[in-house]
Amino acid sequence: MSYGGPQWPQEPRRQSGQSGQQGQAGQSGPGSFDAFEPFEPYRRPDHESQTPDWAALADASAARARRKRWLLTGGGALATAAIATLVATAVVSNDTDNGKGDADASGKSASELPTAPALPGEKGAEPSFSSVAPPPPPNPKEFVSDEKKDTAPLSADTLFPGKKLTMSGRVYAKGPTARTTSCASATQGSLGAALTGNGCDQVIRATYTRDGVAVTIGVAVFPSEAKAQAAVKKSARSIAPLSGSGVGGFCKGGPVCRFVGNSYGRYAYFTTTGYLDGKSITKGDRKAFQPGDDLAEFAFRQIVARGARQAEAAAAQ
Asked: Are 287 and 115 in contact (CB under 8 A)?
């Protein structure tokens, strides 16, 4: 007998000559419910009443329906989750495998693929250097020590530019300037002989004033550094004071003045300092010493800067 779905038992019919009592064990007559055994889980014991338990049958049917729905929904969700887990695991494994050298889309493993050339600075890169050492930068002093290299224009305006000079906050007004190739004519005492005896080429002078003190700075030019040094060592007295352009005469007629000389490269520079009112300079006279020191320092800086400009131009060629 085939059961395509729940077959609800029917109440047995009473036949004439038969009682409503349950039949004896082993009988399968109308008075017995043994024929309903396929309806598990409900199975009525032999001692129960012949009347079906309709509530139990309904519960069993509902349980089967719930199980069917679970298979269609819950079970499918679990299956979907299992598949998603497998896919996710495959993706993660693929990312991990890429770092382990597995085969790529071309079918080659990472160990078989060509490597990029090493970049400069990376490990394994071999930087190349020229075996020829670059030439050293020019020495600025060389350009103001040799007349063959010292070819930049030279004049009173290039050595003493502008109308005033400021040194450490002290302002000096520029007075007259002069340039001569007759070196001895711009000197006092034995300085003239020292200049001409060492091949002096020219003397450029300028006078500056401040607070009643005048300073004449003179720069003598020689063929070489050795000649300039010799001229300074052999000289007595100093450069002749230069007046004019509003600056009166000074250091003439007997007042004591201050004379200083030094050299750098092929240039020798000298200062003559005195009071415009004819007063003598005394030892430790800071008012008179400071202007002479400032002008000597300024001349030195100008000569050094001249060499630096020429060295820079030579390096750029």
From this structure: no
